[in-house]
Specification:
Elements lengths: L1 H16 L3 E2 L2 E2 L5 H8 L4 H7 L4 H6 L3 H9 L4 E5 L6 E4 L9 E3 L5 H7 L1 E7 L2 E6 L5 E6 L4 E6 L6 E8 L4 E10 L2 E8 L5 E7 L2 E2 L7 E3 L2 E7 L15 E5 L5 E4 L9 H7 E6 L2 E8 L2 E9 L4 E9 H5 L15 E7 L2 E6 L3 E6 L4 E4 L13 E5 L12
Antiparallel strand pairs: 1-2, 3-4, 3-27, 4-5, 6-7, 7-8, 8-9, 10-11, 11-12, 12-13, 14-16, 15-16, 16-17, 17-18, 19-20, 20-21, 21-22, 23-24, 24-25, 25-26
């Protein structure tokens, strides 16, 4: 797709600036609608270069509706923060071979050096970080636009839950929670305003340390954290997944698929929510096995068991520098893209596992070392969404 888009550029440039007669036929410049349609189909990196070609193209790509249209036609990738907190990478299997792993070299240095940020989610190209030392310190960063802002949470002892786009008001918002008695109070803040508005109170708190939330179908999804209080009459498997509608800004709880496990500790350590091909996906770890479920009918909450993966059998043949007992090594699933699962295995490295072919390949990169399972990841889409409120 990238190569096809690039072949259009000389023709557009020629049509704009070099009208001439050939065989007594006049070649007229393309209309703005046609140019906009072509530009919105370009990969983001290529689009950024095209914006420098001429002022007219920059004006067209700076229109408020342009970023939204370009987002609709963009493909997602995986954004990974390495265990040192400073190394940021984009994994994109749809890109050219030499650009499938890109290290972000222009990250906000003062944030990385001073606050030990933790990747907490993303929305339409905006990356969300929180300070590892203070949950109320919040950072939002767009690597493409090179824009960043810092916000302060409403409560010192609170929980940053995620970032979302509310289509009804065309606003990007943050979701925050704090404990009050046996309930949690949730607040929302429009990005750029730093004014927090009370939402509903809710009985549950999402798990926030294991992974970034999974956003599909206009809702944010987390596994529920049950260990903040000792409640014996709650079925942890029926009340397993916390859902937040970004339009109505309301909460609900749903069960996880499969058999009941009855342990909140098991949920916290062994169940992970991801996004696979724009559907909600649940990975359930049983020792060395991984069961992968896909939510096929969202409205009816119908799950289908799609894959069972034996990672130990496939990854054992790769050398590792950790303990002799390979089964005790810690691993983490970072995400799924194009039916391939990205896994980091402590002391062994980073692997792509093809779920269809049941084949594993080790990721070899000189741009960073992935020998520690303490990585953070989120689904990410490059975009021109601006933190300043405009798209210029």
């Amino acid at each position: 797709m990238s190569l096809q888009c690039l072949t259009w550029i000389p023709h557009i440039f020629h049509q704009l600036f070099s009208p001439f007669k050939c065989h007594e036929e006049v070649f007229r410049p393309l209309s703005d609608d046609t140019i906009t349609d072509i530009l919105t189909r370009l990969p983001t990196d290529c689009l950024v270069q095209c914006r420098s070609v001429c002022k007219h193209w920059r004006v067209l790509s700076s229109a408020p509706y342009f970023a939204s249209l370009h987002l609709e036609r963009s493909t997602s990738s995986l954004f990974v923060q390495c265990h040192d907190r400073k190394s940021l990478f984009i994994f994109d299997e749809n890109a050219k071979k030499n650009k499938r792993i890109m290290k972000i070299r222009t990250s906000p240095a003062h944030i990385m050096n001073c606050h030990w940020p933790v990747l907490s989610g993303s929305c339409n190209g905006l990356l969300l970080f929180r300070s590892a030392f203070c949950m109320s310190k919040i950072f939002i960063f767009n690597p493409i636009k090179q824009e960043e802002i810092t916000l302060t949470g409403p409560v010192q002892a609170g929980y940053l839950c995620g970032i979302y786009f509310r289509a009804l008001t065309s606003e990007y918002k943050l979701l925050y929670a704090y404990k009050n008695g046996n309930c949690f109070h949730y607040l929302a803040c429009t990005v750029g305003e730093n004014i927090w508005r009370e939402l509903d109170s809710f009985s549950y708190l999402p798990q926030l340390k294991a992974s970034a939330p999974a956003t599909v179908n206009g809702s944010i999804h987390w596994m529920i954290r049950h260990d903040y209080r000792n409640v014996n009459n709650i079925n942890h498997c029926v009340n397993a997944i916390m859902v937040f509608s970004t339009d109505s800004e309301t909460f609900r709880v749903m069960p996880h698929p499969g058999n009941e496990c009855g342990s909140s500790k098991h949920h916290r350590k062994n169940i992970l929510l991801l996004v696979m091909k724009e559907s909600l996906c649940l990975c359930h770890l049983y020792g060395k096995l991984v069961d992968i479920w896909v939510l096929e009918e969202y409205e009816n909450w119908v799950w289908v068991s799609r894959y069972r993966v034996d990672l130990d059998c496939d990854v054992r043949r790769y050398p590792h520098t950790g303990p002799d007992d390979f089964g005790n090594m810690k691993m983490k699933i970072l995400g799924i893209q194009n039916s391939e699962m990205l896994v980091v295995w402590d002391s062994s490295g980073l692997f792509w596992y093809n779920l269809e072919m049941k084949r594993v390949r080790k990721v070899v990169t000189k741009k960073g070392k992935f020998t520690n399972y303490l990585c953070y990841s989120t689904v990410y889409t490059k975009s021109l969404v601006s933190l300043s409120g405009s798209y210029a």
